[in-house]
Amino acid sequence: MNILVINCGSSSLKFQLINSESEQCIAKGLCERIGIDGSKIVYTPAGGEKEVTVTPMADHTDAIRLVLEALTNEKTGVVKNLEEIGAIGHRMVHGGEKFSGSVVITDEVIAAVEECNDLAPLHNPANLIGVNACKKLMPNTPMVGVFDTAFHQTMPEEAYMYGIPYEYYQKYKIRRYGFHGTSHSYVSKRAAEVLGEKYEDLKIIVCHLGNGASVSAVKNGKCVDTSMGLTPLEGLIMGTRSGDIDPAIIEFIAHKENKSIDEVMAILNKKSGVLGLSDNLSSDFRDLEDGLADGNENAIRAMKTYCYRVAKYIGAYTAAMNGVDVICFTAGVGENGPIVRTMVCEYLGYLGIKLDEEANQKRGKDLEITVPGCATKVMVIPTNEELAIARETARLAK
Ligand code: AMP
């Protein structure tokens, strides 16, 4: 069955068509600047040329119509007609406590996701716009929602509660949820598969280090803790997000700089992280690595603080699981950044970790980067959230 995987943002939409039997991506692309001047669709059929078409897109329904036209185009399309698309899988950001797994999308599911909108005001409404647009254009095609938060719903109460009045949990469901769940689930399972070990027998720490970044502790096949919280701002230092800070800093900056809470939150989300720490050098680790090589003190500060925070979370999750068998690095920085991996692993001698320098330089495949015989193994596992969504969609659509 061909599965159309859709990841809908407020003004963008990424898509992949994946065959669920061969697990191959048949075509992929993205629509940018939806509803804004200069919108364009980028489309790449597998093995073919990338096509960029600048064309107006008033809304997400327009964007999805263009995606379907590209996929069925006589010359460059990859399917004859829409009947060859068996199901649609949607990446959904926040499922609150309502969704601990993927679901077939019904009107009741849409209503339940709407109830979580407060928890993810930027993401959930955009996801639902994508769902409704697909419903309009392909009313008879089954749709499945795969939630970023679902994998973390197995966290125990002591891991997900904040030390604030309990009534806020009761009234508003303020608690830790975690994100990137599809990636943490895919990577931890894949690590067990590559090692030829039973997933249920392992203690795994996954470091998803992309522009957004989070760590999770997966014990015997279940997530027991993760570093993002009520929102994706908590935890690691990220590209532009602060991660953990003393909450009193918000009031302090607001007073000193005469800013509103919204303005301070925008600073914590968009101007902080390694971008802020490097005094605006860059949020991109390629630039920071270049800076580090040149001895730039802003780059050194950002890289050191970033890696120290990752190492600290690894220590915390080793304690939470009473040990760790495998540490996985994934996503943009985790997969491509041998320097970050080296700097993090320098803190992990107490786990018996010694990196294989040659393996650590390789890119783009599942690979063990510790020397043989280490008590704890370190691996690089490229994440594939689209494939994980396609698998879930095929399973439920059947
Ligand atoms: P993601 O959010 O997973 O797409 O990750 C994006 C981030 O990965 C970028 O902002 C870069 O910081 C980082 N990245 C991508 N390619 C490389 C590379 N070759 N070396 C180091 N970092 C990289």
Characterization of the model:
- The longest helix has 25 residues, at 297-321.
- Strand 13 and strand 14 (377-380) form a beta hairpin.
- The chain contains 15 helices and 14 strands.
- The chain has 398 residues and is of the alpha/beta class.
- The chain has helices at 60-72, 107-115, 124-137, 157-160, 166-172, 181-195, 248-257, 261-270, 273-277, 285-293, 297-321, 331-336, 338-345, 357-361, 385-397, and strands at 2-8, 13-19, 25-32, 40-45, 51-54, 85-92, 103-104, 143-147, 203-209, 213-219, 222-226, 326-330, 367-368, 377-380.
- 43% of the residues are buried.
- The mean pLDDT is 96.
- Bound molecules: adenosine monophosphate (AMP).
- The site of adenosine monophosphate has 12 residues, from helix 10 and helix 12.
